Amino acid sequence: MGKYLKHPLGQAGVVLFLAYLLFDFGIAYIPPLFGIASAPIPNSVLLQYLITVSVGILIWVSDNEARWAEFKEPMHRVMVDPDLKTARNSLMVLIPILVALMTFSQVRPTVAAPTTLRSIHPAPPGRIDFQGTTLELGSLQNPLRSRGSMEEHYEEGKRVYYENCIACHGDGLDGQGHYAHAFSPVPVSFQDIGTIAQLTESYVFWRVAKGGPGLPNEGAPWNSAMPAWEDFLTQDEIWSVIIFLYEQAGHEPRTFEEEGGEGEVE
Amino acid sequence: MKQRGAKGLRLFAVMSLSALAFHLFAEVAWAQEIAGGRTYGDFPIVGGRVAVWVAAQVHLLFAAFVLGVPMFAVVAEGWGMFGGEAKYDRLAKEFTRLLLVAYSATAIWGAILSFLLITIYPNLWIYLAEIFEVSMWIYVALFFFESFTLYLYYYGWDRWNRGRAKLGHLTLGILLNVFGTAVMLIANSWLTYMMSPPADVGPDTAPGMVQAWSAFANATWMPINIHRAIANVVFGGAIVGAYAAYRFLLAKTDEERAHYDWMGYVGNLIAIFALLVLPFAGYYLGREIYEYNQQMGITMMGGFMSWLWIIQAFLIGVLFLTGNYYLWIGMGRIPGAERFAPYTKYMLVVLIVGVIVWATPHTMIANREEIAAMGGNLHPFLGVLGVMSAKNTAVNIMILTTFLSFLLYWRANNEPTVRWARTGTIVQGAMFVIAALIVVFYGVYGYFVSAIVRIGFSVYQVGAVIATIVGVVVINVFMMRGAKSRGAIRWGQMPPRSQYALFILAVTFTWLMGLMGFARSGIRQHWHVWEVVRDTSEWAATPALGYAAVVISACVLIFFVLVAFIFWLGGLAEKPFEAGAGADASSSPGGPELAPAAGD
Question: Where along chain B do its domains lie?
Fold first, then answer.
């Protein structure tokens, strides 16, 4: 066994196998041991990671002449050595079968919906119509941040949230509301650094006001069940709930740079 | 030989003039004919949009080549002239020989693009021509001067090779770059105007009322200029590397192999070093796009086009891995390099982890079961790798690692003799460690601050990396003065797979240019000119990513078929390789032949 592990081909196989275990099982089950949430990774990401590791392995075995020769030697021997005819013939059968099985598993019809690309943050339009008023999203600011008391806005937002949003987005703003598991995809978690923390308030306003029905075509396919809250809430109520979301989740909205009101990119 | 050269000159002159004549007169005539007629034309089989797309893309690829290569041709010539090393002069001439045919190809594809635009998008053409007519005339004039400067530069190489004449020849090379860059700046203004027209231009603004200079120097013009200028150097280096690899694989003598091995090394070095600064220029461009229009920025970075960034991350990962691989294999021909060989596997692990982090998607491609298991498209654990804090950290660490590879390569056969060598090495090591710590610290800290603060952190990360690169290079230059050689580099003793690495680099760069060019252009969506001239053709919808990838791959294929022909021509016109004309390096044991060790 030790002999095989000292051989580059054996080492390559072991590294690839360990990488597979780490990606397919380690990522899903090790973080929870430390109280960190995790889940199995999708096949698309698993494949991407394994290809990357395979490229790394190929680089390692071939960046040195001696190692490269040693790595190829068993494969070469299997192909030409008269004593290894059985192994050669077996591989000639096994490899096509393996390829056929992989092909079959790829094209086999299933009841699952096809895998799709999904834009989490589809681009907003330049302007929207909100209850008869045209709002320019590019320059839209939360008016409540320069008006009245922030504590009052926060309390008002809290009221709006607990009356309208909690059922789906949850008490902890983590997308785990009572109804959440009836939806696919589940409602977003505002705690996640990939959601409102990445967005300006005007973007969040647009999403809340227009909901799933108001998403642009370039955001499709989009399976959002969120209603268009412009039909139920006033403009100030939406702005106040946005203040509540950011305060409660501990994120800051993306801001425009102070000089000349210019935007930013990350 | 001279006779053949003169015939070649006439042939190129006739071709170029013909292209120009068609370019000038046909545009006017066709434009007049169609002015009051149809809105859009069509093209058989593939449709109008794809026809223009392919013509524009292939034209751009050739243009990038003919703009990038003269930059380092003239630098190499200057280096050979002032440094007294004839091999650089030969290298520069060989670069320039490739330019001649590539230049014709650029002009031909430019003419194809113009004709297709005129016939398929006549109204858009007329609109743009009315705003940019003066710059179009200047463009043609510059094109004319550029062409003939190139012919003088190449055909005068052997005649003006001494004293003042050589200085004049070098000046021609500089002029060639000036004309070429000016041509690029003008063309960039047209396409950037389509992305970011001035704020006071609307759908009702008559083109004649648009101020020419504000249209010319629009919001994204300068960022594109900078990004393209650097990218052209990268691309030129990669294509020259591929040419050297092609010639290396066909070489019949050791001298030829030594020469083309060295040429490939130089091309790769230029490409990789210019690549290291390209992300910063790209960042500047992205920032300006966001500032110009938030919707456009979000479409590019967070919306529909964001998937291209994952592909880009993966391809740039390929570039980093391949560039390092080439250096590591190259160390096999450097005496003394074996003492560094054990470290390459650690650097490889760092690079692989970097690629994995950089290419981890923010929103994952998943089926319904996988989405249900994750609780959405964001992975609860890997989601932290999907944001820019992680990406910036990964790419900066990859840049540092690549630079470390280069440093080891540089020092491989050199034994410093200065008294402070050990201290210098420790300081260099400390600079790497400190830079890595700064990069990781701000990467992690970035998760705990607002976006506006986090963006500022990237400046510290980049600053630390650039300061380290500059500092380490300066120390090394002084440390390697009078260094003792462990033996001459055995130029030419490279396995063939190293040359395939150079091909991979060239193809990957080309693919990246097409894909990310589509991202830049596609974010205009259904607008010819953003929110000013709407695309009302049947091709107005932004193409799906898969479709775009197929078209771009076809462009890459067309380009490389033509480039392969040019490579073949490059060998055809050459006189038999003279012994000793290659890298003199191969025959001078003990000398610090590795270009950087000599102060490159």
Answer: 2-306+487-567
